[in-house]
Fold:
Amino acid sequence: MSSSIISKLPPVAANARRVFMVRHGEVIPPNGAAHGVHYGDMDVDLSPLGKKEATAAAEYLSQYTLHSVYSSPLSRAVYGAEEVRKSRSFSSKQETLTLPGFSELCRGAWRMKTKDEIGLETYAKFNGCDESVTPEGGESIMTVKNRVMGALNEIVKSTPDGEATCVVSHLWVTRSMISDALGLDPSKMNEVDIPTASISCVDYEEGGKAQVVMQGFKPDVGLEKSKDTGN
Structure:
């Protein structure tokens, strides 16, 4: 669902709470490295393109009224959240709230390494949720998903019925939320496509039922394609 041809979403049902999920834009790889190294929860800067992508996502969301905006503590996500706040109406007076639960997957000993340096077999096992290959000092996919869902439950509870909230975060954070809403096995999370600065949307009804309204939508505003080979 990456096309720019998408109509405005229907209003939130009276018994539901909507969460818009935005991934941050393209980054500048840390320490002068090339795209493809893994940085995870390192606090890396957005590229000029990444900032434009964040603005494009925010401009798309400006057509919706939001109750509040949440963000990962990492600066690349905070930038996107602040773009969302710039020109819109809110149903609450809350400032952007950062929640550690929305931080990106910690890569531990795999920071600044490529897939080849990690080992393709080991990398594939990790993405398939094999916790035995979790890098030293890092997190497994299930560890990330559990903390993300804890943070998500917190913001859903804080959102009034019939209203929408936005969270700006990261690849594995958004994968965690979308895969849970879709009922996917955690071993399939790696297959969930979430482009840089894309927008996903899930409606949560009373009783915990989740409906994915939009996944990985990226407004087409004529920007060049981002480089997204490491995270």
Observations:
- The mean pLDDT is 93.
- The helical segments are 48-61, 75-86, 115-118, 120-127, 141-158, 171-182.
